[in-house]
Fold this protein.
Amino acid sequence: MNHKSLAARLTSSILGGVVTLSMASSVGCRAITDVHESIPASRLPRHLAVEPREGRQVFPFTALGQEKPASHIIGGGDQLSVFVFGVLPPGTETTPILQRTQPVNQRYYPPHGSVVGATTGLPVLVDQDGSVELPLIGKVHLGGLTLPEATTAVKNSYRDKQITKQDSERVIVSLVTARVHRVVVLREDTPNAAVQLVEPGKVDHIHRGSADVVDLPVYENDVLHALSVTGGLPGTDAAREIWVFKRSGLEDPHAITSTELQTRAASYHQSEGTQGQVIRIPLTGCPGESVSFSMKDIVVEDGDVVYVPRREEFFYVGGLVAGAKIPLPRDEDIDVLEAVALANGSVGGPLGQSGQSLASGTPGHMVRPTRVIILRELPDGRQLPIRVDLARAMVDPKERILIQQNDVVMLQFKPHQAVFNGVLNTLNFSVLFTPSN
């Protein structure tokens, strides 16, 4: 082979590679995304930017619990012991002793699993309307009273009927067991302490939540105690919020969208008589921001459901890196450079991707790709392409935009990078060193 034929073959290979890559970059790449229709990251409107996660702070956990009053307030479901000398119990001159020993529950709940002391009198159950039935005088309303006030009310009732006399009466009203509220706690986060670690590029497709039915005693029937007895605060695989579905006044149940759920949560604070009440309790907020829920929001009653939703936040990568669905961290921000790094698809350097180009005898990616197209979903369902220059992002914070949920991150070559690398890979270097005849 002479030098003229070698030069002709070399020229033909170079021109063929240039033409092929030019056609691919002008036709094939345009089919993926049109760069001219994308918005530079530095010019992205503020309303389309991502709200930072790292600046948010946790609200005091005491805000999830209610304040216990100084004295027990009698209500429907309380079990009282009432002793009226000579009347209750009738025909006895001695003070009866009511033993209140109960079996111990190691989980503390339900509250009847505690050991309490003895009291005097006979047990009397408070009706839901707050009244009790006593011999000779009938119903006496005790709801909303403390124990000393209830004792005075019973004394006055028997005095009014002239059954007892003030100088010789002996009346004792005490608490045997307090009323409880049975609630259901549904959790979609990790239900046990045996947490399975998952690599950043992998997604846990199999997950099982947990459910508990707990009896919360009065003044402890709140979100804080409901979480404490069922595993503690939401884990990292759960959202930073808690939902409470109120049983009272529940309308006909039917499937609702997330938008309707948010509307119901907002309407709960606007109207006291809202049907099918839904309360959203966020656990984090901006510095200096006050809590958006009130004390009555965190109190749960019979039939209410406390729901801890699972966090479903992912972004997608593709293009020159291996396609993957990557979970977003709950409390950290991920920018475009970190997103490419998490993709674990090394495309830079003279060895190409994972050095596999050496096996084919080609130089690989001599020029690293520096263009990223981010497809961001808009509120109306459309997708907005955002163009990022990775070389500028290394020095310009405006280019390092944050990744949000459902973003599609596509790593691409610029046209001149694709042409340069394509020419080197198309050209077989072995031609240059073929010995002449």
About this structure: The chain has three domains: 3-52+333-433, 57-67+180-308, 79-177. The longest strand covers residues 180-187.
